């Protein structure tokens, strides 16, 4: 008599993932919501190792960018700002992981909508002029791109009207004078980013990110300083892959794994 095979175990609905060669770990949903990748690591690399004070990670998800900065910058306190209760739950669980014990005291979660303004923003816990650094990885796909039945994932990926204006408005309100704004976006959003910075942030430094030297840029890395009147600088490109292979270039690999950061050309 041949016995039927036992049922296959159900696929886990979450994973615990190591970043920066195991220097921090994230609990992330599987098959639902947003999972962190290289964008968050490049964003984190825009914040210098010697940064101090407080940092807000707007639209933090499970906290990838904020964690990545906290690992390199031991004098920063990081607030992970996330409006989705589903993803904020994962951020809190990531902070509570035993593997992250050395970081936990410098990380906290604020469950708030980044687009809130005025008294609503203050009531949500985003106070005026308290942050020395603000980082953001907004949902920058067109609404028709990468359609998914998962509402959490769609919300995390799809661009909303006037998104950069509202997100950068919030960054300008919560940042101290002289604070650094850092963001990652698609090249097609450059005009919206510049317009959003307006007179709030100046001294924009823009780094295009290319898959290979001969290919068009797929991302831009932007830093700016609150209240600066310095002009815009277009920096030399970051190239992800050398030649035709899939291995990261040494520079990008170092940025992606927290072994280096991408400093501004000017402090102004």
Core attributes:
single chain; 268 residues; alpha/beta; Rossmann fold; two-stranded antiparallel ribbon; 8 helices
Describe this entry's structure for a reader:
- By secondary structure, this protein is α/β, with parallel strands linked by helices.
- The protein has a single domain, classed as Rossmann fold, CATH 3.40.50.
- The chain is built from 8 helices and 11 strands.
- Strands 3, 4, 5, 6, 7, 8, 9, 10 and 11 form a 9-stranded mixed sheet that branches. A two-stranded antiparallel ribbon has the order 1-2.
- It is globular, with a radius of gyration of 19 Å.
Q: How many separate structural domains?
A: 1
What amount of the residues lies in strands? 25-35%
Any low-confidence stretches, pLDDT <50, length ≥5?
Answer: none
CATH architecture tag: 3-Layer(aba) Sandwich
Number of strands: 11
Please estimate the helix content.
25-40%
**Distance between termini?**
79 Å
In short:
With 268 residues, the protein is an alpha/beta fold.
List the topology elements.
Elements: E1 14-19, E2 24-29, H1 38-44, E3 52-58, H2 64-72, E4 75-81, H3 85-96, E5 107-110, H4 118-123, E6 131-136, H5 151-157, H6 163-174, E7 175-185, H7 190-197, E8 201-210, E9 219-226, E10 233-234, E11 238-239, H8 250-256
Parallel strand pairs: 3-4, 3-6, 4-5, 6-7, 8-10, 8-11
Antiparallel strand pairs: 1-2, 7-9, 8-9
């Amino acid at each position: 008599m041949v016995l039927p095979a036992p049922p296959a175990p159900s696929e886990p609905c979450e994973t615990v993932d190591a970043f920066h060669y195991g220097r921090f770990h994230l609990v992330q949903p599987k098959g639902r919501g947003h999972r962190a990748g290289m964008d968050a690591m490049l964003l984190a690399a825009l914040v210098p190792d010697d940064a101090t004070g407080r940092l807000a990670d707007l639209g933090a998800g499970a906290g990838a960018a904020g964690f990545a900065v906290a690992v390199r910058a031991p004098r920063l306190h990081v607030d992970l700002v996330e409006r989705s209760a589903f993803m904020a739950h994962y951020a809190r669980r990531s902070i509570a992981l035993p593997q992250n014990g050395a970081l936990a005291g410098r990380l906290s979660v604020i469950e708030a909508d980044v687009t809130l303004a005025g008294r609503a923003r203050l009531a949500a816990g985003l106070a005026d002029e308290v942050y020395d650094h603000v980082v953001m990885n907004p949902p920058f796909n067109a609404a028709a791109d990468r359609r998914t039945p998962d509402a959490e994932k769609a919300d995390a990926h799809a661009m909303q009207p006037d998104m950069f204006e509202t997100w950068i408005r919030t960054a300008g309100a919560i940042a101290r004078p002289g604070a650094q704004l850092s963001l990652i976006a698609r090249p097609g959003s450059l005009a919206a980013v510049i317009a959003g910075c307006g007179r709030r942030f100046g001294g924009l430094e823009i780094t295009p990110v290319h898959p290979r030297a001969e290919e068009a840029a797929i991302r831009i890395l932007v830093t700016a300083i609150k209240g600066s009147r310095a002009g815009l600088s277009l920096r030399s490109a970051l190239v992800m892959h050398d030649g035709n292979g899939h291995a990261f270039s040494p520079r990008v690999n170092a940025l992606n794994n927290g072994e280096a950061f991408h400093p501004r050309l000017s402090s102004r």
